[in-house]
Amino acid sequence: MLQQTQVARVVDRYHRFLERFPEASVCAAAGPGAVVEEWAGLGYNRRAVNLHRTAVIVTEQHGGHLPDDLAALLALPGVGPYTARAVLAFAFERDVAVLDTNVGRVLARQGGSPLSAGSAQRRADDLVPVGAGWVWNQAMLDLGALACTKRRPDCAGCPVSASCHWFASGCNEPDPATGSAGVSVPQSRFEGSFRQGRARLLDALRTGAVVEPSRFASICGWESGELGHDAAAAAESLVRDGLAVDVGTGSLRLP
């Protein structure tokens, strides 16, 4: 839920989600439509489908518990290097590095140059003290979020500024974090976008309705055609991503 979504939007929804789906087996049995329905308002809806698919695999192949093996975690739908290592570090207290946008920014500035994906992860892993993976990752995440921020970093109050190459150079441009692996880039505008229309169509399906093709454009907000988006393409993308099913003649409902 926290992937590119602010904590304030997630906290209440996280607890509500766990009340409805307290275990992986309950989530798996509920079906993807129920998970997509509960996900309303959180955005990036494919995460809901991947979460349900993961719940099914965890239930059928891992006894209802997340595996504590990196390869097995990476094999789960929607789980990438960051999520897999976060589970290992925070749930199983393994000595692996969690590389998010904040940590990636710290590492690039410390080294004074942009990092590739592989070099960033290797550098992060090399820094983890033996037996202290859990607390180390907490500290690194906080360092990037609170001190080594994207704009106006608090270099004077940073506990590792003495070893920072960028700070030693006077924090001159270009910022080595720019373009470095693991450091996020600005999202495209949502207002008026294809993503916004697609989200509106999915919200209409969340009411439990079966929506006919003749209503797609008006629901997406593209009836006038002035935005140049294709409502049929939005519908097709929902089906392709597992967020909707075609019930015949192109009409859609939740899976």
From TrEMBL:
What EC number(s) does the entry state?
3.2.2.31
Key word DNA repair present: yes
The record, for InterPro entries, names: DNA_glycosylase (IPR011257), Endonuclease-III-like_CS2 (IPR004036), HhH-GPD_domain (IPR003265), HhH_base_excis_C (IPR023170), HhH_motif (IPR000445), MIG/MutY (IPR044298)
Keywords linked to the UniProt accession: DNA damage, DNA repair, Glycosidase, Hydrolase, Iron, Iron-sulfur, Metal-binding
Q: Which cofactor does it need?
A: [4Fe-4S] cluster
Family note: Belongs to the Nth/MutY family.
Name this protein carries in UniProt: Adenine DNA glycosylase
Task: Specify the taxonomic lineage.
Answer: unclassified sequences, metagenomes, ecological metagenomes
